[in-house]
Amino acid sequence: MCGIVGFTGEKPCAVSVLMEGLCNLEYRGYDSAGISYFDSQGTLTTVKTQGRLDRLQAKLDQIQPQSCCGIGHTRWATHGEPSDQNAHPHFTEKVSLVHNGIIENYQELRQFLAEKGYSFSTETDTETAVKLIDYFYQGDPFQALRKAAQWIEGSYAFGVLFADFPGHIYAMRKDSPLIVAVSDEGNFIASDISAVLRHTRRYHLLSEGEIALVMPDRVTFFTIEMDPIEKEVHTADWNIEQAQKGGYPHFMLKEIFEQPEALQATISPRLSHGLPDFSVNGLENGFFREVDSIHIVACGTAMHAGMVGKTLLEKLARVPVEVEVASEFRYRDPIFSTHPLVIVISQSGETADTLAALRLCKRSGVPVLAVVNVTGSSIAREADYCLYTYAGPEIAVASTKAYSVQIALMYLLAARCALDKGKMTEEEGQQFVKQLQEAAAATADVLALSDRIAVYAQELVPIHDLFFVGRGIDYALALEGSLKLKEISYIHSEAYAAGELKHGPISLISEGVPVIALATQPALLAKTVSNIKEIKARGGQVLLITREDSPVDPSCCDHLISLPNLDPLFMPLAAVVVLQLVAYHAAVGRGCDVDKPRNLAKSVTVE
Ligand code: F6R
Prior knowledge:
The protein is α/β, with parallel strands linked by helices. The protein contains 17 helices and 27 strands. The strands form 5 sheets. An 8-stranded antiparallel beta sheet has the order 3-2-4-1-10-9-11-15, with helices on one face. The longest helix is centred in the C-terminal third of the chain and has 22 residues, at 426-447.
């Protein structure tokens, strides 16, 4: 949610480095973009515009700036519409600033600053931050930042330039991510490492309340009390190729096709003697023995992965599981059992709602286990235990491979929990793991159906509404299929438990309304087929997704996609690939910007 980058070096390449960084961060928001830089005379200049980076580039092409140091921003609008005026950086004569987060007390600050003679030209919360820093600035940037931090409530990652200090970037954060990356060519700040991977994989994590001073040849860190701090250098395990399209037309398609590999990378390191083993992550075998209830807390697609996790944990380990949307969980005063465990799931590890839920649990003394894709992210750092998924960078806004690896970890956790609780023998555990590995490999067979799915998806191009139905674990998948389709193709869709249709929504089924029905569970097949017949009788056009060995009469549906005959519990790994491809091809057919759907951003760091 908003991307920040900054660069300072010896060579006058800052503008192109910033633009490249912003391009890599555009998935965090693309309502407007801008940069501030010191020109060759050391003058602080700002160029910004509503819209995407090509518009900013066009403006910069007219000026051809030469600069060794600057900061940049790509915005996901919160306060104030997307406009040139509201675009970042925001600046005064002395200070220029980029911001990711929300200044919650901005109205109060605005009033205070207005009384001090400041005027405001934007509707943003950020303008108050830059003016507050300006107000406190008496020649010492650290003091200005420090004082501003004492006044500001809310979340922020700031990159700041002071006109008096050409070549210096100041950075500070609270509840929004920011890293400081280092290289031989110069040093960087960034919302995440993907912004600067072409230049370096070495970075420091800026912690809450710390201030960084980034110069061409060194970086220094201080506490808010101005005590110097030594910080560890991390090395990103992602590389630049992973963060590029690699010949695919869209990141989303590339990421869908990376699933077999990502699954393998996530599952293999968690196996010992053919059984799930998380002891390297601090979860010794036996960890789950006493756990008497589990809350899975997440948002969006990650929450849908949690729903699959619930089915698995309850079925295999017989432990009660609640799955909750993070933004609701944190405000409803949750009731915890005697030995609860909270599992938070997040691709980015920065989702504000999920992070807030995690903090609530920690305050209540409840242990939190995080399933996270981004190394060193806030959720990963704050949880008591962290299991990384190894999907590699997910750039497309719509989550695909991250979902699959999240559910892969759910399978392993459910089996570990069942083993710990004596509900599964070691032989059964080994057999389960083998089936999981087979299912992961079988995703490659489903990917081979992409062209066929593209033909079906063409039928969705002109439609306005669509329904997904499924029972049991297929209902969790239906929700995910529906979210994926609506977020990238803008086709309105709803997901229902197949048995619920007749309690209301079936009134929406009329001649030609498309319905995607999931029936991957043999035990529920007959019931779902009855629901499909009810839909067909009202003119619905049904795509049935089922197993190859399902004894269904193909005439009960209009289109049929058959999946490999995996053990029923593992069918989600195969079925979700079809749903992702349906959404992708429908969105491409409708001419949508698949990787950057409107109004969305990848990392939702505001509540
Ligand atoms: C949908 C999607 C979102 C995210 C949600 C949580 O395709 O990507 O629904 O799943 O915003 O994000 P993370 O997993 O980063 O916490």
